[in-house]
Amino acid sequence: MQPVATTFFFYLLSGLALLGGVLVITRKNAVHSALALILTLLALAGLYLMLYAPFVAGVQIILYAGGIMVLFLFVIMLVNLERSQKEEQFNKQWVIGTIAAVGTGILFVLVFVKSRELPNLVREHVAQLPEQSNTQQMAVSLYGNYMFTFEIASLLLLVAMIGAVVMAKKRI
Amino acid sequence: MLSYITDYLKSNTTPGQAGNLFWAFVYILLIFLGLSIAVIAMNWLERKILAHMQVRLGPMRVGPHGLLQPIADALKLLIKEDIMPAEADKAVFWTAPLIVVITSFTVFIVVPFGPTHAVTDMNIGVLFMLGVSSLGVLGIVMAGWASNSHYPLIGALRSSAQMVSYEIAMGLAVVAAILMTSLNGMGVYGIGGHGDGTGTLSMIGIVQAQQAQHAWFIFKFFPLGLIAFFIFAVAMVAETNRAPFDLPEAESELTAGFHTEYSGFRWSLFFLAEYSAMIAVSSIAVTLWLGGWLRPFPNLLTGETWDLIFSLFPAATFLLLALLAFIGTIRMPRHSYFRIQTLGLGGFAALLGLIGLILLIPPVRDRIQDIYWFSIKVAGFMYLYVWYRGTFPRYRFDQLMRMGWKVLLPMGIGVLILTALVGVL
Fold first, then answer.
1. Cβ contact (<8 Å) for B128 and A32?
2. Could you write out the three-class secondary structure of A3-35?
């Protein structure tokens, strides 16, 4: 099936993602921030779908929106929200913050301008994957071409997990 | 315009793949209608079955044998006062039931009721179903937190811990089944099926793989498929917060758990979502292990006679139901007080009989078969849910956690490794 109204959906999803991101840092209530973050993650999943990467979109929903954010909410609910709301929310580092924001902004603008000057720089390297075989291609990349790095990353995660368990439990 | 509608009937795909918005809309409406009827029927059936298991009669007052009880309940809920606690977080309290309902209905987009009877066939079908149904827990957690009261909060905490624990075991069982789609070489230890298969995540593709391999995945690599199915069957009860894992709404400890502060229409949304989520996970189980829309022995008992016999099953079921309702009509007490009820039950019997007769017409008969076999398998799971509720006592929370992490998770990993080994050898 041919995609319909791609421009509209692109702006809608990016708008939602940005709105969610802004809400995450402006809400005083931590639960509201977490919910806004879920909105951002879901909008990103939609953007992945538009890039013909349904597998990544599905994993994004299962892992981030369904798994990690539920754990986030679980932890936030155990925190005393009323006390944390009265505490200071920002630590007044606006000089460094402004410099970092302006720097990133300039970088984005430069990339945008450059990509307009050299259309081939961006467009030729965008892989137009057929939607039907996205999962298979992911598997070939992960377990074929980049097997070693993939396994190392998983080992690293395992070590981190064991470390967290050891630090959290006094007696194992 | 008219050709846009009729052209689809000749094509052999789902409306989503054919890009036909009209038929996709029709399918969505039909599924929504069917689900609502199924939830209403389940409401009545659950009470009746539970009552009979406990040697009671169950609802008997509203309509003959309490048949109109669910409608009376729905009316009661609609006209009930909608209370929102003063200290509740208004926006979150308001959106929580919506999220639960939307997620539990959205998953039905990819459920394959037949080779072409699905709204669409996604390349990531199973992943989509698991992902979207795991979003439902967010609604429960939000409801518990937004109520700003202790029982709902504890219910929500329990729910999130339970979901996260059981989702892992569930995922491993599903991966074992998906792995089987690619191991085409051997059906049940070498019987039937040939050639290399390619693995697939699409719901329709999984059922077609079972047909091609001449084996439902529950019987494949016996007993590996059976164990994976068992893990899923336990985890799905925990995922839907049903007895014996209904700790988030344990009424003896938490009043009503996460929906204590909800009433009226909002509460009924939670109820609707719970039942449609039950149907959704049951249909995942049916698709992955019980051959989806395939009738029993699709490759063994072939030929026109067997096709005819199996195609008569839907009509036979409805005619049997009509007969039961008719017997009930005859056995109604002969008293003027019962006249309207007798007439109503007789009309219901006539309606069921009429549906049965319509299903006898050859074109209808052929098209309805897949949907019938899928639904009857799902109905079996729904009965199991009620059966569990009637027989098992509720687990304690530490028992629930031990079961999830120390029994189901290692079992799931073991089954996955063994399936891969057997498939490669």
1. no
2. CCCHHHHHHHHHHHHHHHHHHHHHCCCHHHHHH
